[in-house]
């Protein structure tokens, strides 16, 4: 018989594995964006932070005894790779919109990550295995990342959507 407590634990496992899959996509996207960016781009620092955030999620899952669902992580990784093959009207090179769309997707991913940290933060009052101070730090970092990405998104949008002759 499945108890209500057990079911919640199962649901938390599904929820955190979904966030792990999302973090896999976000990290791959951030790495690709940073590889094509200027050497002094803020994206390089974001990649390191996003990798640290993914590691933090894995550590939290381990602390909670939640098993990583490898198939979800692999499917997310493969989906990110397949997403690069979209038809964008530019067969052999990146579309001028690629950087804008990627920046927007990464920002949405960071917003989703922040939601996950907020959920865990709310659960920390009921589960002593969750470190509320660490979750507060992760949440503050996600908020800062979102702000940085919004600034970058605005700049990229102006470059992509305005003519150089204007």
Report the span from N to C terminus: 69 Å
> How confident is the prediction overall: mean pLDDT?
85
Overall shape: elongated
CATH H-level superfamily: Ferritin, core subunit, four-helix bundle
Helix proportion range = over 70%
Q: Assess the beta-strand content as a share of residues.
A: under 5%
What is the element string, with H for helices and E for strands?
A: HHHHH
Structural category? mainly alpha
Detail the poorly predicted runs: none
Gross CATH architecture: Up-down Bundle
Total strands: the figure is 0
In the CATH scheme, the class would be Mainly Alpha
CATH fold name? Ferritin
Describe the main β-sheet briefly. none
Computed over alpha carbons, the radius of gyration is 18 Å
Number of helices: 5
Q: What would your notes on this structure say?
A:
The chain is an all-alpha fold. It has one domain (4-160): Up-down Bundle (Ferritin). It contains five helices and no strands. Helix 1 packs antiparallel against helix 4. The chain starts with a helix and ends in a 5-residue tail after the last helix. The relative contact order is 0.13.
Explain briefly what this protein structure is:
The chain is an all-alpha fold.
Task: Please give the structural blueprint.
Elements: H1 4-35, H2 42-63, H3 70-83, H4 98-124, H5 132-161
Give keywords.
166 residues, mainly alpha, Ferritin, 5 helices, 75% helix
